[in-house]
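Cupin 2 conserved barrel domain-containing protein
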Amino acid sequence: MMAGDSIRSDQRGPRSVRRYITGHDPSTGQSIYLEVPELKYSQVPGFGEASRSFATTQLPANLDGDSDLKAYLSKDTTASSTRGEIIVPAEDFVRYPETALGGANIVNLSIDPGAIGHMHRTISLDISTCIEGEVIHELDSGQRVLLKSGDHIIQRATMHRWINASDTVQARVLAVVLPCSTFQVQGKSLQEEHMF
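C-alpha cells:
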C-alpha cells in the first residue's frame, strides 16, 4: 500500500507514533515521501518517553540541497534526531556557529497513566497540543488547565509541568519548540531550569 492510499485502522489503545517527511524526487521534481529511519525514543523515568520528529538548525529553515534533512539525520548537529536536549543549549552556539539561536524542534511526549512530570522551564516559545488522552498543564503559580484532544498551550518560557489526568490511559502531547532571545522578568534574566 502506498502512503497516499486510503488507510483504515481498527487498532485500539496506544500505538507508536509515525512521522513522514516529504521531499522532491531528484529526477522528476515531483513530491515524494522520503525513506528515513524510524523515530528514536528516549525513556523519561517516572514520566513516559519522548522522541524528536524533526528539527532544524536555524529559522527560517534552509531546505537547499536537503541541508535540513542532512542535519537532522546527522549525529553531530544541533538538529540531530539523537540529541537529548529539547532546545539548543547556549554553549552549542559556539560549537555550531551556523545555528544562531537554533531552529524548530518537533517533540512527541508520551505520558504514562498517572505520571506527573517535574516542574521545568526552557528558554523557548512552545506550541504544545494534546493529541491523545487528557493532560493537565500546571504552572509554578499553581494555576492549571485541563487539555483535551486538540487543545493547546502557547508557552512563553514559563515554569510548568505535564500531568496525565488519567490513571489508566496514556496521553500524548506534540510540541513545536522554537528558540527565543534571552529576556528578563523582575530584573532577572531567565535561564533553563529543572526542579526534581
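Helices lie at 67-73, 92-95.
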